[in-house]
Specification:
The chain is an all-alpha fold. Helix content is 78%, strand content 0%. The chain starts with 7 loop residues before the first helix and ends with a helix.
Length: 361
Amino acid sequence: MRKKEMNPKRKLGLLLFILVIILVLILNIQNKKGKEQKSIEPNTLEMMQLASDLYGNGKYVEALQQYKKIIGKEPKNYGAYIGLGHSYLQLGIYEGAIQNFDKTFQTGYVDFRTYYGLGLAYYSMEDYNRAYANLKQAYDLNPGNTAVVSYLLNTYNALGLYDETIKLAKAQLATDANSSHHYYRKMAIAYFLKGNLPEALANSQKSLELNDSYPPNHLTLGTFYIGLGKKEEALNEFKFASTIAKSDTVYAGLSLTYSLLGDIANSQQNARLATFYPKHSFSTSLLGFALLYINENGKAIEEFNSAISNEQGYYLPYKGLGKAYMALGQKGKAIENLELAAKLNGLDEESKKLLEEANKS
């Protein structure tokens, strides 16, 4: 008996039904895979922890890339912008740091870390006026943060606010014993630039007693010894610093001290070594002021000009030049440089007073 053939319409319907079943199965499998994939994809907290760990291990490029991924997922993630900004800071890309710290204002949430990050970036760029504005904001929001306090003290000194340095450093000594050697050194610099060399020396020696393995403590004391005319003692401090750190300040101090001792060969050798490292206008200016104290005005002018060649927008070397030229009786050059100093830093009252005296003389 012949089999009855299936109606073509039924045949087509059955085929479509089978195709639908297959399609549903495929979609279910894909959906299941998608859910599994989603379940193993790291969430934002895990990504932030990974970025933080990378940063803490000194892997700043990798941390930077991770923070960018987080921002890609969450464009208003405040913490990611902060982390990204600090990663740029560690890499010496200050403009990139500033751009990302600025973006935190668009997230709708701002705390002291934004202002601290901006202050640190501007301080690193030797833009001390902007550093001061942001670090002061950070301090007002979180006065207990020792990192903020440390850089605010540095900025006070860089801008000639020496009484503010001394006041804040003394207050910190009562509450933060672990960082006391830093506070003594920052006070020492303030006293030094105020012209109180005995207090500068006493505080500098105290900072060294508390921590003799911290190179800046030796460099600061070495600079003060130059200002006191103690050349051999200065040389010993710079030599010791050179055994634990290499920088422009170390070699510049050695070069200057050898020059004062008449050892031209060693002076030139260390001057060449100094060129391999970034110059810091504030440290160079300190050497200039040390030379003013011992009436080495010609050498002081060389140091101040060296500082200006590194950063033309910083007031302190112009103030130093003003003092040096006044001591040499070159009133015109003194007024020219003091006018620049007063214009570049309206917070420094001494520059204004020196300018008034120069115009009257």
